[in-house]
Amino acid sequence: MVYDPEPELKLELVAMLCDKSFKYTPEPSFKLVSGRMSRFYVNCKPTTLSPRGMYLAGHLVFEAIRDADVSGVGGLTFGADPIAVAAAFASELKGRPVKAFSIRKTQKDHGIVKWIEGDMIPEERVAIIDDVATTGGSTIQAIERARAEGLNVVKAVILVDRQEGGLDNIRNHVADVTAVISRDELLKRWSETGGAV
Prior knowledge:
The protein is an alpha/beta fold and 197 residues long. It has a domain at 50-183: 3-Layer(aba) Sandwich (Rossmann fold). It contains seven helices and ten strands. It has helices at 7-20, 45-48, 51-65, 81-93, 137-148, 166-171, 183-192; strands at residues 22-24, 30-31, 37-38, 40-42, 72-76, 99-103, 116-118, 125-133, 152-161, 177-182. The strands form three sheets. The protein has a six-stranded mixed beta sheet with strand order 7-6-5-8-9-10, with helices on both faces. A two-stranded antiparallel sheet has the order 1-4. Helix 1 packs across helix 3, helix 1 packs across helix 7 (183-192) and helix 3 crosses helix 4 (81-93).
C-alpha cells in the first residue's frame, strides 16, 4: 500500500527525488547491493540531507506513523537517520512527539554494547523506517535488531518502494507496512519532465 498524505508535499518530494536522487536507463546499468543490475537507481541521501527534502520527508513519514501509537521511529544507519530525525522534529512541531533512534550496522565493542542509539526503553512501540526498499533486507535487519533490543516493532515505513517485492518481504516480519512514494510515481514524474520510458 502506498500512503498518500498531504498531496502537495508528496508531489514536491517526488519532484525533488527525480531531480536529486533518481536515475533510469532503458538497459540495466546500475549495480544493486545484491550484485544484480537494474534500470533504476535511487539514492535518497541527496534529497533527505537537503533542508527542504528533510522537511518534506519528515512531515510525510510522521503522517504515515501518527496513528500507529508509536513512541519512536528509526532504522538502520545511515539511510534511515536523516528521515528519523526529520520525522521526530516534525512530530514535535505537530504536538505529537515521537523519539528518533538509530540502529547500528555493527555492534559497539566498547562501553555499553548495544545495537540502538537513542532514548528508547524495552517494550516501547516503534516504527522502523528505511529510505529505499528493493528486497527489504536492510529493513528486515533493522526490525530484527530492534526486537533483539526489546522494542515492540508495530509498523514499517519506506520512503521509496522500488516495487521489486521488498514490501511483501517486510510484511513477513511486521504486518503494517506502507510506502510514501513508489517507483512508478517517480517514473511518471521523470517521463513527464523530459525522460522517456
